[in-house]
Write a structure and sequence with these properties.
- With 347 residues, this protein is α/β, with parallel strands linked by helices.
- It has 2 domains: 186 residues, Isopropylmalate Dehydrogenase, CATH 3.40.718.10; 139 residues, Isopropylmalate Dehydrogenase (3-Layer(aba) Sandwich).
- 37% of the residues lie in helices and 20% in strands.
- The chain has 11 helices and 12 strands.
- Strands 2-1-3-12-11-4-5-10-8-9 form a 10-stranded mixed β-sheet, sandwiched between helices. Strands 6-7 form a two-stranded antiparallel sheet.
- The structure holds 1,4-dihydronicotinamide adenine dinucleotide and magnesium ion (MG).
- The site of 1,4-dihydronicotinamide adenine dinucleotide (NAI) has 21 residues, from loops.
- InterPro entries: IsoCit/isopropylmalate_DH_CS, IsoPropMal-DH-like_dom.
- This is Mitochondrial NAD-homo-isocitrate dehydrogenase LysB.
- It comes from Crucibulum laeve.
């Protein structure tokens, strides 16, 4: 039996950190089924070469031939480019990876991590403003741009169920719902009420009685995240707020280069570092590979390979704690390869 893992490094530092994650998985030996890697393409470079950012073949191979996947990062342009659309946003929808789970944990104050950060951002991954229905029209006073923000009961319920399940499995069992329903009472109101109603769903039968529920408006949530991160355990949020909050939370632990995620659906899981393609450091060999290695761990854990996942996480934590082999984002002087070597040694 083997574990078939699709690899989509995509653009920029994705090409530098995904091979590191692959090497870390290979080092696990018999703790996981023999991994078989399938190289796949997507991204801006693929688009400029072929005119398509997410080739149908990539989607088909993931769907039909892979058990899971690792995605690097894409360099999406900030201007509108005809025919281009972010492949990661599309992949999440194509494979119905409705939950984006992003743990942020501090392990060492020595490397500039704020103490006692131990939280998970659970981000809805398929709708909100990321349905990308935008229109530009001419109004009486110039151009007018509109975007549709879609919040459905269905998607809010399943992300709520995922958040309750995760919260219930943690020692503190505390869930904070992030919204802005004081202003957006219809869309965020539906999100808030639907998540709140999860414990009353048929079949739940008091399973979540031990979970305490809090709410925080998204703006003050960011404020409190910086002042008193320890109040948060599991945070559940609509797509855009979850995107912003998880990058903010990354600052608490010193670098985006440390934060992993998985995109999870009912039948597929894709690990992905939270960071982007980091054009400012691309090609320099100094990208932090730890977010990607942790994403591999998270993916393996989701698939039930706890021992392999624990070994990856422990190795990463040890390297951070020792503080000797770190990339420049953590004020170190090591390269991607040196950090990978240090992790491999610990594994
Ligand atoms: P970014 O995450 O690429 O970079 C933000 C800052 O963090 C930069 O200073 C970068 O050097 C640093 N950083 C990020 N990852 C790092 C790592 N592993 N090691 C060391 N330093 C790291 O975000 P930015 O600059 O806003 O976006 C750049 C591009 O990435 C854009 O084209 C954007 O569309 C894309 N992007 C793609 C994502 C994805 O593929 N899921 C997510 C976020 C952005
Ligand atoms: Mg982001």
């Amino acid at each position: 039996q083997s574990l078939r893992i699709g690899l989509i490094p995509a653009d920029g530092i994705g090409k530098e950190v995904i091979p590191a994650a692959r090497a870390a998985i290979e080092a696990l030996g018999s703790d996981i089924p023999k991994p078989q890697f399938v190289d796949l393409v997507a991204g801006w470079e693929t688009f400029t070469r072929t005119g398509v950012a997410l080739p149908q073949d990539t989607v088909d191979v993931l769907r039909n031939e892979c058990d899971c996947a690792l995605f690097g990062s894409v360099s999406s342009p900030s201007r509108k480019v005809v025919g281009y659309s972010s492949p990661i946003v599309a992949l999440r929808k194509e494979l119905d990876l409705y939950a984006n789970i992003r743990p942020v944990v501090s392990v060492s104050a020595e490397v500039g991590q704020k103490a006692s950060v131990d939280l998970i951002v659970v981000r809805e991954n398929t709708e909100c403003l990321y349905v990308k229905q935008e229109q530009l029209t001419d109004g009486p006073n110039g151009k007018e741009a509109r975007a549709t923000r879609l919040i459905t009961e269905h998607a809010s319920r399943r992300i709520g169920q995922m958040a309750f399940k995760l919260a219930n499995a943690r020692p503190r069992k505390h869930l904070t719902i992030i919204h802005k329903s004081n202003v957006l009472s219809v869309t965020d109101g539906l999100f808030r009420e639907t998540v709140r109603s999860v414990p009353t769903l048929p079949g739940v039968d008091g399973k979540y009685d031990g979970v305490t529920i809090a709410e925080q408006l998204v703006d003050s949530a960011v404020y409190r995240l910086f002042r008193e991160p320890e109040i948060f355990d599991v945070m559940v949020a609509p797509n855009l707020y979850g995107d912003i909050i998880s990058d903010a939370a990354a600052a608490l632990v010193g670098s985006l280069g440390l934060i992993p995620s998985i995109n999870a659906g009912d039948s597929f899981v894709m690990g992905e570092p939270v960071h982007g393609s980091a054009p400012d450091i691309e090609g320099k060999g100094i990208a932090n590979p730890l977010a990607s290695i942790r994403s591999a761990a998270l993916m393996l854990r989701h698939l039930g390979y706890t021992k392999g996942a624990d070994r990856l996480d422990t190795a990463v934590d040890q390297v951070i704690r020792e503080g000797k082999t770190l990339t420049p984002d953590l004020k170190g002087t090591s390269t991607t390869t040196e950090v990978l070597e240090a992790v491999l040694k610990k594994i």
